[in-house]
């Protein structure tokens, strides 16, 4: 039982970090598309964000896993299950991160961009050296909230029968008629969230250089 739960913990942690690895940079690209002056691109990105935020993540995982077969008759076996989990989580969380990024970028006074332009800074240099550092500082609390939510959302992988921590705990509890696996799972999620909160709080303090 212990080995199974440890294996489930490892899978949940892997989902978590791979989701962040994909969703954080993708969210920035989506935010750029959302703020684009190209109207068709802006509308497509707005629709994507609306769908991702307006439908359950569980449903999105099912679409990603079963969609290729029902739409294009492409067979999806067990080997695709983990990839479907990561794809579903990444595209979902990228939409949320994109809106957080957009809020952070638009909160920067326009005068700073104009001043950088007067000094001869290119748009990319202005973003990397002036906008990005301030944006990161402003959005960190909101990003932290999403990262904590992601810890708990990893349990939704059960929707496509991927055996992460919570799914294994449920199977063990059913077969052994005991609540101990659920207690272990609850402790795991709490400790994981606690560690994430501690790390992000330290990051916030390091960025509070004017306080």
What's the short version?
The protein has 211 residues and is mostly helical.
Fill in the keyword field for this structure.
211 residues, mainly alpha, MetI-like fold
Question: Care to describe what's here?
Answer:
The structure is a single chain. The protein has 211 residues and is an all-alpha fold. It has a single domain (2-207), classed as MetI-like fold, CATH 1.10.3720.10. The chain has helices at residues 2-34, 39-54, 57-72, 81-106, 110-118, 123-153, 165-176, 180-207. Helix 1 (2-34) runs antiparallel to helix 2 and helix 7 packs antiparallel against helix 8 (180-207). It is flat, with a radius of gyration of 20 Å. The termini are far apart. The mean pLDDT is 89.
Would you tell me the structural class of the helices and strands?
A: mainly alpha
Helix proportion: over 70%
From N to C, what is the helix and strand string? HHHHHHHH
CATH class bucket: Mainly Alpha
Number of helices: 8
Extract low-pLDDT stretches. Answer: none
CATH architecture label: Orthogonal Bundle
Silhouette: flat
The biggest beta sheet, please? Answer: none
How many domains? The number is 1
State the fourth-level CATH superfamily: MetI-like
CATH topology: MetI-like fold
Counted beta strands: 0
Q: On the 0-100 scale, what is the average pLDDT? A: 89
Estimate the strand proportion: under 5%
Output the radius of gyration.
20 Å
């Amino acid at each position: 039982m212990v080995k199974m739960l440890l294996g489930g913990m490892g899978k949940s942690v892997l989902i978590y970090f791979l989701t962040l690895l994909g969703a954080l940079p993708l969210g920035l690209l989506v935010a750029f598309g959302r703020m684009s002056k190209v109207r068709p691109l802006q509308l497509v990105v707005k629709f994507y964000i609306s769908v991702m935020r307006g439908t359950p993540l569980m449903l999105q995982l099912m679409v990603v896993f079963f969609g290729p077969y029902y739409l294009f008759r492409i067979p999806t076996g067990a080997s695709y299950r983990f990839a479907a989990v990561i794809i579903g989580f990444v595209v979902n969380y990228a939409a949320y991160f994109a809106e957080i990024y957009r809020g952070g970028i638009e909160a920067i006074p326009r005068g700073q961009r104009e001043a950088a332009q007067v000094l001869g800074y290119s748009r990319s240099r202005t973003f990397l050296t002036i906008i990005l550092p301030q944006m990161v500082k402003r959005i960190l609390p909101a990003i932290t909230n999403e990262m904590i939510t992601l810890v708990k959302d990893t349990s939704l992988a059960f929707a496509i029968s991927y055996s992460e921590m919570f799914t294994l705990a449920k199977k063990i509890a059913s077969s052994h008629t005991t609540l101990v696996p659920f207690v272990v799972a609850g402790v795991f999620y709490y400790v994981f969230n606690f560690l994430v909160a501690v790390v992000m709080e330290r990051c916030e303090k390091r960025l509070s250089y004017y306080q």
